[in-house]
Structures are given as structure tokens and as C-alpha cells.
């Protein structure tokens, strides 16, 4: 097992004028499950392939433990791409299906047997080791395929969108299975997905990329509560955070006819007369005073205890993102109604309007 | 129930297939029992009028992606199966959605590796299949294609003048780039080695590999052959200014390997005493392209080499070395190749492709002549071959028999 270090690692594809991965700095701890997430084209796969040795590194370094693997051939790196296309061999026993890569690597028989048995124990496949794959259920076969990567005992597991070809239900089940298996094995894992929900539910830490640049790397909790910039604020969370440009007023922010108090040293970090305010849908409340952000309700989504309303501010373009708020499911406002919202004070996310960087605590 | 068929030139008969039934349960009447490689998806061969198609049930995004990749591979002139259609929007009788289907044309006279190994016509089968696969992999890599899942199962083999020519059949993981990195090539080779060793171990476990053959040792051959060929096709060479004949020699060597050199980089050092050459663009199919130009025959590379040699002998025997090459080729086609291949009775024509039969006839004539101690005329050779050799051969236009495995691992999880 080992740490993984991206040290200003950069990849520029031939003919491209901007890097696809730009001076990436991440330290993955021993045994950690790190998820790389970002929109399409943000460089997640490229970053993973640089670690696997499939893409050349044009600048900086990549380390596994304290080995510099920047220019090492893929097979010498001791990493395993899990969920590659694994075929099961019909005439071979489950044990042989799991252990054959070790046989190719020239490991002694006794060691192969021992490693296969260990993996089978973790995967609940012990009773089936002498059977043929045909005699197994679909789920057991999938675990045999996982077992093949496990017996190699690599220092790092790499997974690139392993669930993308599964349907939604199976995806949720398999997600849980992979995460719990990784925790039991304790093997350092780097996992790529474009799905922020998957990232937030699986990772010990999540690294958000955009245009090849690392935006933030943090625990899911911290990422949710404390996005470092406007991009991360809008990308993480479902439904998405409300982000709006608001004028700075004396001692606070002007929300309609109401001033939301904000500490002076935060306001002091603003440049220009506006800031970007971010409020999550669950951090809003309907004000009884009739003051605050006036929102016209377009859609009410009832979820039992809660309801989400999707609305628009007066003067908002039809193409703009809807304003979303979570309200009490028993007494939701009706479609077409205008309601006034105020943020719950302690959960404000305030960003510099020019740089997009976070300025609130 | 609205199904959606995306096809290059749609065959209306596609609409009559039972799309609302999971592929696994399709009625016998539609199916052609042909052997396949190992696969995780359900794959079936289906008769559609005169032709046979391969149908693979796979999720829609993957089906569309593979369809597109196969189209692009063929556009690049790479040997791959021909994509025909993607069928999506399938719904079962009880209303549940079914996966999409990718449809490719069944590659005529192709043999999956299990069929190749189960026939064992000559003992160096393993060597010859791996050599063909190495050529395919080098060709793909030169064109910027990363395969991602190189294996015997994902390859089809066609006879090629006693050797094999390999075709890519599974492009699910393939990616096409402007150029490949060393790491991508190494990864493909590493995966190829592991998969081939696994597939050979499986043949061994099933009793289909010769006693004493070592799967891992055979698999090592892919690495070795690949490196040799890759170096010959791409490496830089330096020599003294006076040795300029070495340029021609390099080109001839590449031609002999079946490649044309479309671009060669040549430079001298500052004082001009040494010359450096490096092939930049090479293109497979040196002999088959030449034969195609001369005769219009579309055959595999080694078959073409064989036919071109026969054309040369014909030219010498008829003293027409001075004549226009195309005229002689035309005469050879009309007087030799076509009459001879037409002599094969229709009921034996599904055994082998005409060019392969022609190759075997040339071999057979050599064998008969050696036994007789003098030259045997080709007419006698044909008579003997059609009477004694060909009837014993299996039909290979669409190989029957040998059932096949597919072991889906994307089924519902049960824990
Ligand atoms: N082989 C390549 N050659 C040239 N450009 C490439 C290559 N591979 C990726 N790119 C470019 O690099 C950028 C990052 O691509 P990458 O595949 O790493 O992104 P990603 O975040 O994984 O996206 P996705 O979720 O769509 O897979 C994109 O702009 C892409 O077009
Ligand atoms: N067009 C074709 N012509 C001849 N044989 C074909 C064709 N298409 C598929 N086959 C056969 O079907 C087998 C399975 O197809 P394929 O490899 O595409 O399936 P798969 O489920 O994607 O495999 P894998 O498990 O490797 O991902 C192949 O090994 C080949 O023998
Ligand atoms: Mg396949
Ligand atoms: Mg496949």
C-alpha cells in the first residue's frame, strides 16, 4: 500500500494549446479513497491515465509511495485498473479464474492459493472456489472479476467510471459494494466519475477539476459546507446551490428590500459594489414579515415531509437557472404565489464577484 | 412500441426480427449456430435473407459508441467487422425496457480462435494466430488506435495462404487518437499478454491444447513479434553517405513485410557524412493493393503475395516480360485464375475462399510434382485436389458447430 502524489503534474496533448491537466497537486494518503470529479472534458480521465502510465507527463512528477513513476512503463507501476473488461474462462475453476494473473507473473503455487483464498474470503466466494463460473450467479461472477484485481495486491486501484454501463438501480448497489470493499481492503484508490452524487457518497476525499485545473480537494462534508469558489459551489450539491449577484450595503448584503447582516471584514474583501451570494435550498426560510427575496413559485415538488419549490425572481430571464428552496412539506406555497425568502444567517457562502473566490468563513 | 433503428443502409428485414424478446430467448428459426469467442454480452448470429448478421445486446450508449468506433476504424482502412445498425427503444411484452442491440455483418470465412484451435490442421496454429494478432495490433497502433481489450476472443481469423489474417471484432473499449503514447501501446500489449495466456489456459483446461504446450510461453510470442515488427516499421537507421542503397533496401524490407512506405524522413548530419532515415507513414497491404490494382481481386495480404508470384511465373512462362503489366495480369486472370477456381464444383465452394483454394492448389501441385518426380500440370492438380482434399474439409463460409460460451457478469447483484 502506498500514498500517491501528483506534484505539479501537467499533460498537454500534441497540438493542444492549453493543458488538459494543469499543474495538478494532490496528495492521496495511504489507504484513502480519492474521487476525481468534474464536468466532461475537465481532465479527470487524463489525470488517472497519467497515474496509470497511459498518458505522458509533460511537466511535474507523479509518485507512488516514494517511487517516482513519472516515466515508468505501466506494468512496472504496481497499479491495477479495476473493472477493465474482465472475461471469465468457462473451463477454469473460480480459483484459477482469480489466480491466473499471478501464475503469469510466475508466483509459486502455494502463494497463489493463499492469496486466492484470502480474496475469496473477503468477497464471500470461499464455498465456490472449485466451481466453474457457469455455476455462479451474476453477482458472484462480478465478484470473481473483482477478485482478479485483488489477488494482485497492487499498491493502488484505479477506476474510471466503472459504473457507467449499469442501470440506475444497479449503480447504487454496486457503488455501496465497491466503497465497502475498498474500506475492508484498505488499498489506496483513485476513482473517476462525472457524477457528483457518486463522488460525495463514495470518496474519503473529493477532488474537483474544471478545465484541467484543480478547484478544491476536501472531504465531502467540507466540500459541501465550505466550497472554495463559485464553480465548486455550483457543481457540488443536488439540487444545486442558489448563486446570485447581490449589491453590498452598509453592514450587509441587500436582498430585495431587506439587508442581510454580514461581518465587516468579509465585506471588506469584496472588490466592486457586488458579491456573489450562495445559499443552499435547505438554508432558506420563508419570512413572515414579507421582506426578503421575492420569488414567484413556478413548480412545487412534494416529497412528503419536505417540498422543493422552483421559482424565479422578478425580472429574471426564462433561461436562467431556477431559484430552489426547501420548505415544509405540509404547508407549501402554491404555484403562481409570490413568497419572500431569507437565508438562515449561519449558512451564507459569499464569493468575490470578480475572482469567484470565497470570502466568507 | 417504437423501436429506433440507426443504420448505414437499413435493411427493412431488420424490422421483422423479434426485438421485444430478450436476445437470449430468440426462437431457433432466426438463429444461425456459429461458434463465437468468450463474451460477457449475449451475442447471436441471425439469418437475414441471404446474409448472416451478428447481434450483440448491450446498453445503448455503449452500442452507439462501438458502432461509431467501428465505422471510424473501417474509414481508417483497419481490418474490423462492419457495423450495420444500432437498434434501441426495445421494450419487452411486459413493458420492461430491454438493452439496445449492436448489429455487425458476420465476417465471411472468419474463424473464432476456438474453431481455429479445435481443427488443428497444422501444429503451429498457436504461433500463426499470434503472429496475425501481432500484425493487427501494430497496424492499429500505427493508426493511433488504442484497443483496450486485446484478446483472442476479440479477434477473428481468416485463412491467408496457409497463415492467418486477423480482424478486430470487439471495439467496445477502443479509442482513436491522433497518435499513441508509449504507455498506451505498452498497456495494450500487457493486456494482450494476460488475456491470451488466460484464453490458452482455458483451452488447456478444456483439453484443446496440445500436451506439453505452455500457455504462458506461447503468449510471450505476442510481445516478441510485436516488438520486432514495430521496430522494423518505425525505427531510425543511420549509415554512411556512400551506402545509399540502404534506403532502397529498407523500403524493400518493409514491402516484404507487407507494408508500403508512404513517407520516409531522410536527413544528413552537419558535415553530410552520415544519412539518417526513418519511416514516418507506413501502410499495410502492399501486395493486396497491387493485386487489386492489376486484377480487381480483393484478397488477404499473403494470398495476394502468392497470386502475384504466380502471375510472375505466368509472365515468364509466356515470355511476356516486356508487355504491359496490366495486360498480362488481365490475361492471367482470364486464362489461369478464373478457369481454375471455377473448376471447383458449386457444392464445395463454401469450404474455402477462392484465393485460399488457389493457394492450396499451388501447394498441392508442388506436393504432387515432388512425389511424381516431375511437373504435374495444373489441370491434373485441380482434378486430384477436388477429388481427394477438398471434400474432407469443413465448410468455413460460416463455420457450424462448437457451441460457445458467454458469461454475463453485469447481471443483477445478489448480495
Ligand atoms: N488523446 C487525446 N488527444 C487530444 N486531446 C485529448 C485526448 N484525450 C483527451 N483530450 C482532451 O483533454 C481534455 C480532458 O479530457 P479528459 O478525457 O481527461 O476529460 P474528462 O474529465 O475525463 O471528460 P469525460 O467525463 O468526458 O470523460 C478534453 O478537452 C479532451 O478533449
Ligand atoms: N461480425 C461478427 N462476425 C463474426 N463473429 C462475430 C461478429 N461479432 C461478434 N462475433 C463473435 O461473437 C463474440 C462476442 O462478441 P464481442 O466480443 O463483441 O462480445 P462482448 O460481450 O463485447 O465481449 P467482451 O466480453 O470481450 O467485452 C466474438 O468473440 C466473435 O466470436
Ligand atoms: Mg469481446
Ligand atoms: Mg466487449
Report a brief summary of the structure.
The complex is a heterodimer of chains A (361) and B (415). By secondary structure, chain A is α+β, with helices and mostly antiparallel strands.
Describe this structure in words.
The complex is a heterodimer of chains A (361) and B (415). Chain A is an alpha+beta fold and 361 residues long. Chain A has helices at residues 44-52, 94-104, 109-122, 138-151, 168-185, 196-202, 220-225, 230-235, 264-267; strands at residues 4-11, 21-28, 33-37, 59-64, 67-68, 79-81, 156-160, 188-193, 205-210, 213-218, 242-249, 252-255, 258-261, 274-279, 284-286, 293-302, 306-312, 323-328, 338-343, 349-352. The longest helix of chain A is centred in the middle third of the chain and has 18 residues, at 168-185. Chain A is elongated and about 80 Å long. Chain B has helices at residues 60-75, 113-119, 125-142, 182-205, 215-234, 245-256, 286-295, 301-317, 325-342, 354-372, 378-389; strands spanning 4-7, 31-32, 43-48, 51-58, 83-88, 100-105, 110-111, 145-146, 155-160, 163-168, 175-176, 237-240, 259-268, 274-284. Chain A binds chain B through residues 14-15, 49, 52-56, 73-75, 84-92, 96, 100-101, 103-104, 124, 133-134, 137-142, 144-145, 164-167, 170, 173-174, 177, and chain B through 38-40, 59, 61-62, 148-149, 151, 153, 172-173, 178-179, 181-184, 186-187, 190-191, 193-195, 197-199, 201-203, 205-206, 216, 219, 405, 407-415. One adenosine-5'-triphosphate (ATP) binds at residues 13, 16, 20, 38, 40-46, 194 of chain A. Chain B: This is LPS kinase.
